[in-house]
Design goal:
three-stranded antiparallel sheet, mainly beta, disordered N terminus
Length: 232
């Protein structure tokens, strides 16, 4: 169940660009209230997107974006979405029918087929959790980022369980990604030159977040006892 948040953008720019930006722009120069749920705001390198709803009863809404638009990353398509994620020059979102849509430079010419539960965009790649909890990645293949679990790569080796199912995923702004499986194991794949894709193997996690050269996770301790851990 989601709850309603009221996002207020405090703005300092002299340019405005909400929703269908056609020129480079920064944040709006007025305070803009947006009704969003907890999965519907995403900040990229130089642009951000959110899903605007009309009321707390709404499931999904239109995507609004602001910021730099030199690759079309701030020009979302029409229609209702339930989740959005931003990369460097592209953005991706899940439509209300659970299909995927991406826009900007680096968006796939042929969008990935199937139904999605979550999408996470890095600089030049994106990964998504499918309806069956498997992972699909597209975009750059640098660092092995496209070698997403099916038979999944963790610390450069094939995981013994090729049927892992995922509950949460985070694509970094670098060339690696991490995900939390159904049994709360943390798995990472892609570039690992700083050990950023080498998660602990003796801990259970409920959440993971990635930056360019590091990853942090929230460990399962007890029902109300949580502890963070980082690698990289």
């Amino acid at each position: 169940m989601s709850w309603l948040l009221h996002l207020v953008l405090a703005c300092v720019s002299t340019q405005t660009a909400l929703s269908d930006a056609t020129t480079d722009a920064l944040v709006p120069d007025v305070i803009v209230p947006l009704d969003i749920d907890e999965t519907s705001i995403a900040a990229g390198i130089e642009h951000s997107c959110a899903i605007q709803t009309q009321s707390y009863e709404d499931v999904g809404g239109r995507v609004v974006c602001w910021g730099v638009n030199n690759g079309g990353q701030s020009s979302p398509p029409p229609g209702d979405f339930i989740q959005v994620s931003t990369g460097r020059l592209h953005s991706c979102g899940i439509r209300i029918d659970e299909t995927l849509e991406c826009w900007g430079i680096g968006a796939p010419v042929t969008k990935p087929e199937g139904l999605f539960e979550q999408v996470s965009s890095g600089d030049f790649h994106s990964c998504g959790i499918m309806k069956d909890q498997t992972i699909k990645c597209w975009g750059t293949a640098a660092g092995g980022i496209s070698n997403a679990p099916g038979g999944k790569f963790v610390q450069g080796q094939l995981n013994a369980d090729p049927t892992a199912r995922f509950r949460q995923i985070s694509s970094s702004s670098g060339d690696f990604a991490c995900g939390v499986t159904e049994d709360n194991t943390l798995s990472c794949w892609g570039d690992n030159h700083r050990d950023q894709a080498s998660p602990p193997t003796d801990e259970k996690f409920i959440l993971v977040s990635t930056s360019r050269l590091a990853a942090c996770g929230v460990k399962v301790r007890a029902s109300i006892d949580l502890k963070g851990l980082c690698s990289g």
